[in-house]
Design brief:
255 residues; Endonuclease III, domain 1; two-stranded antiparallel ribbon; 53% helix
C-alpha cells in the first residue's frame, strides 16, 4: 500500500464508516449524545482499550451499566467514598476497582471545578503548540491534583516518553468529527492531534514508510504524525481508523 494522499483517501472512503465501529470501543461513545456524558465515556473507553476487543467491550459495558444513561449526573451525585464500592470485583487485566475509583474521582472533581473535562483540558491548550503533548501533560497534572493518584496505568504520565496511545485515542475521538469520530471538543485543533501509536500502528506506519524507527514510543508517534501532516496538514490522524480496519481486512497490504 502507498502512503500518497490518493491511496489514503481511497482507504478512508472505504473503511472510515460507522458499520466498522462494532470492532472498536469507540462505538460506545456514540451512544451518548450529550457532551458531558460523551467525554466521560470516551475517557473510560480509551483508558480500557488494551487487550482483546471482546474483553475490552465487556469491561466497558460492565462499567457503563453502573454509571447508567447519564454518567455525568451519576458521578456528580456520587460521593468519593462510594466510588470503590461501586466497582467492587471489577477486573480488566491490570485494572481493578480502585483504579476506576481514582479515575472517576478525578473526573468528578474536575467537572466540579471547571464545569467540564473540556474546560479543564483547555487550561493547558495553546494554538501555538505544534501538538497536544504540552496540553496533555498539563491535563495529567490537573488530574493528579484532582485525585487521580491510584489510577495506576489508566492515564499515562506524558513526561515518561511513552506514546500515550490511549490518551491520543481519546483526543482523536473527542476532537475530530466525521462519520466515525463523534467529536465535541473545540479547544483543540485536529492539526495538533497525534497518531495513537502501538505495536499495530507502528507496523502500519513502517510499512507505509512514514517512520523508520523501530520503537513504538512518543518519538515514533510524533514522526509518523508529522509524516501524515505533510499529506493532510489540518488533520494528520484522519486516516487512523481506516488504516487499522484495512490492516485487519487486508493484512497482505502491510506485509
Amino acid at each position: 500500500m502507498k502512503s500518497d494522499k490518493k491511496t489514503l483517501e481511497s482507504a478512508y472512503k472505504k473503511y472510515n464508516r460507522p458499520e466498522y465501529l462494532s470492532t472498536d470501543p469507540l462505538e460506545f461513545v456514540h451512544f451518548y449524545p450529550e457532551l458531558p456524558d460523551r467525554e466521560i465515556v470516551a475517557l473510560l473507553a480509551a483508558s480500557l482499550a488494551y487487550g482483546r476487543v471482546a474483553l475490552i467491550r465487556r469491561s466497558i459495558s460492565l462499567v457503563l451499566d453502573i454509571l447508567g444513561p447519564r454518567p455525568a449526573e451519576f458521578l456528580a451525585a456520587c460521593s468519593d467514598s462510594d466510588l470503590p464500592n461501586l466497582f467492587e470485583g471489577f477486573c480488566h487485566r491490570f485494572c481493578k476497582a480502585d483504579h476506576l475509583a481514582a479515575l472517576f474521582r478525578a473526573v468528578k472533581r474536575l467537572n466540579q471545578e471547571y464545569g467540564s473535562l473540556e474546560q479543564a483540558y483547555a487550561q493547558g491548550v495553546s494554538p501555538d503548540h505544534e501538538h497536544v503533548m504540552p496540553s496533555m501533560a498539563a491535563f495529567y497534572d490537573l488530574m493528579i491534583k484532582a485525585g487521580l493518584e491510584g489510577a495506576g496505568h489508566l492515564v499515562p504520565d506524558p513526561s515518561k516518553g511513552s506514546a500515550c496511545k490511549r490518551m491520543n485515542l481519546f483526543l482523536r475521538w473527542i476532537v475530530r468529527e466525521d462519520d466515525v469520530d463523534p467529536g465535541g471538543w473545540t479547544c483543540v485543533h485536529p492539526r495538533q492531534l497525534i497518531v495513537p501509536m502501538d505495536v499495530h500502528m507502528g507496523r502500519i506506519c513502517r510499512s507505509l514508510k512514514l517512520t523508520g524507527r523501530k520503537q513504538n514510543d512518543l518519538k515514533t508517534a510524533l514522526e509518523a504524525s508529522r509524516a501524515f501532516g505533510r499529506i493532510c496538514p489540518e488533520d494528520p490522524v484522519r486516516y487512523d481508523f481506516a488504516l487499522t480496519r484495512i490492516s485487519m481486512a487486508e493484512p497482505e497490504l502491510f506485509m
